[in-house]
Amino acid sequence: MVKKRLLLLLNLTLFVFILIYFTQISPLVPFDGDDWRYIGGIRLPFPMWGVWNPTKVLPETLMAVGGYIAAFVILPFSGDYINSLIFTEATIFSLFIMAFLLTYYKLLTNRFRYGRNISLASELTFFVSFFLLFKHLNYPSYSGFWTVDLTCVFNYLIPNLLNASMVMYMERFDNFYLEFKTMSNIKKGIFILCLYFTLFSSTQATIIIATYSFFKIIQIFVQERWKLTLDYLKKVSPYLVILFIWIVTVIFDLNGQRSKSVQGANRGTFADEISATLRQFNSFLKIQNTKVVYAFGVVIVFAIICCIVIAKHNTNNSNLFISSLLNSIFGIVVASMYLVIAYSKAGSQYAARPDAMWPIIFFFLFATNISFIYLINNFSFLKPFLPIFIVLISLISFSFNYQQVPATNAPYSAKTAKRVDNYIISQIIRADEEGKSKVVVKVPLDSTDANPRVSASNWPHSYDMAIWLQNTLYSHKIIRTRFKIEFKPDNSVNKRFYESRNQQPFAPLE
């Protein structure tokens, strides 16, 4: 009982830290047109043929639900609209991260049969490794939980976290088909619900569960001695269903308006597009800390060697470790190929973004951490060094001499983004209180070629953001009527709110 309470306390502390990180250290501020489009409007909760995003059910419902909670539950107590949105959406994000980490912990204790203490230590190193992988001490860093803006938290990171959590949950059981059969109806219902939102989230993220399912089909086929029997088909039936639905989602998305719009904009040959995407993928590799990548690679290789050496004495654990490692390596290869091909059509710049390449990050860090914990578990003399190791990598990962790259779709801080938001919204509220039917709102001049005839220009404060902001403010009952809002980009707003980009370098202590 004492150990369970300690485990609960430590995970609760970790959750509080994550929440503080995304509300105070690196706040998730609604700032651009996409943020205000999706935070206040909710779609029908099922796939829709031919629309802009046919299968993004999870992002386009959950983000709006968070907006409703912020406006109707948190705002009456806080009195600060923007901070209410930040707190609520960050809480949702933090809960998905914690579910992801706890699922990893349960996999170690239930399937690998590791002790609670060592599994908890691995859970912490798993979390920290998402920051350590991208940490640079001499300039702003990305992280494995970084994204372009608040919208992309729900379009990339949360779908990826859910996919990875579902994979680790299913991997907890040696025979998931039998496990599902013995579940109570409530558990089956919860699993089906989670699977529904997993598959209808993002086709970039669902490559995680699709790759895992394909690997399991092959693995079980080998275990059945290459025989296509009825028992084999039963065992792989959950994975076959997942793969079938995944293929359907890909077909839906390929026939969506967004996909057709992007494909129509591509003018080069397929070889040119692949080449451009590979160059961006190389940029993605460069934003990682090379020394950390090499160190993680050494851990994986050393763990494989040790596994081969001690397999005779620890067969079950070693076989399970090798199976999980092969699954991860297979996932890295397949996800890399899939995403490179996908982004060669969707836009090569995505291949340079950590949030868009998250499946690769997950498989790599999962492989690293299960290798590390495998070594620690099999070489007892290493266990006393775990506390100092965790503390040291945490101090490195969470050094704020340089801040994380802003998640505001602009090179400005979260504090600046909040001030600009409040300035824009105050103009709209004032016009609503005065009973106006139309208001011209001053916004930053974010692009020198801003043109009202091009609705998407002046990003992140594009002209069409006025429509989405009106939708959101009305649905959140910040304004009383749906009156007309027009944006007027003005450089005086930039001078008033935007900070200087010319910053002094950090002076190191030693």
From TrEMBL:
Keywords: Membrane, Transmembrane, Transmembrane helix
Signal peptide stretch: none
Top-level lineage group: Bacteria
Segments passing through the bilayer: 7-26, 84-105, 117-134, 146-170, 190-215, 236-254, 292-311, 320-344, 356-377, 384-402
Protein name per UniProt: YfhO family protein
Naturally occurring in which organism (per UniProt): Limosilactobacillus reuteri (Lactobacillus reuteri)
